[in-house]
From TrEMBL:
It comes from Rotaria magnacalcarata. This is Uncharacterized protein.
Length: 49
């Protein structure tokens, strides 16, 4: 049971961290209320990557 609890806690923490990263990325590409795409491609290359 202790291992299951530790594994579940680890998964939950990972999901929260992933969600926080997603929110930070959304803010990064937001300006004046407009949400920009995460990729800008030119000659099949991602200019934002």
């Amino acid at each position: 049971m202790v291992l299951d609890l530790a594994g579940t806690t680890s998964k939950l923490v990972n999901r929260v961290e992933t969600h926080q990263t997603f929110i930070k990325q959304q803010r990064k590409y937001r300006r004046d209320g407009e949400v920009f795409r995460r990729t800008v491609e030119y000659n099949s290359q991602n200019l934002l990557g």
